[in-house]
Amino acid sequence: MSSPPRDELVMKVLVALRVPGTDTRDVIQVHRRYLVGLMQQWTRIKEAEAESDIGLGLVVDAELFRLDAVVRWLDAADGRIKRGAEPSADPQATTTTTGTTPAVAKVRRRIGARG
């Protein structure tokens, strides 16, 4: 398994979590609104011109799918932050001294995340 690519939005949310006084959920919602606006613009292009141009239609679809994935991630991040960290549902899972499974600890080291 390779490390995920660096993503500016992911890093921004991670930094917001660590900066005292920052409302991370507000940061997420600002980005979400911006992305939904972009999706609306791309949808208008698709409705106006992409039906007659297959290439443009493919490009617009790719961008809409990409933006949708980012919005879904923001929604998931917002939900996770709202719930807070929850312990593993599997009481049999082996954990490290930091309270994570060995597999999770390995991934955290690969991406440079701190516990």
Highlighted features:
mainly alpha; 4 helices; extended
Polypeptide structure, described:
The chain has 115 residues and is an all-alpha fold. It has one domain (8-111). Helix content is 66%, strand content 0%. The chain contains four helices and no strands. It has helices at 8-18, 24-48, 54-83, 102-111. Helix 2 runs antiparallel to helix 3 (54-83). The longest helix has 30 residues, at 54-83. The protein is extended. It starts with 7 loop residues before the first helix and ends with a helix. Residues 89-95 have low confidence and may be disordered.
Please give the radius of gyration in angstroms. Answer: 19 Å
Domain module count: 1
Report low-confidence residues grouped into runs of 5 or more: 89-95
SSE succession: HHHH
The averaged pLDDT comes out at 83
| Straight-line N-to-C gap | 20 Å
Beta-strand segment tally: 0
Derived from helix and strand composition plus strand pairing, the structural class reads mainly alpha
Largest sheet: none
| Strand portion | under 5%
C-alpha geometry: extended
Estimate the helix proportion, in percent.
55-70%
Q: Helix count, per DSSP?
A: 4
SSE map:
Elements: H1 8-18, H2 24-48, H3 54-83, H4 102-111
Helix pairs in contact: 2-3
Summary?
It contains 4 helices and no strands.
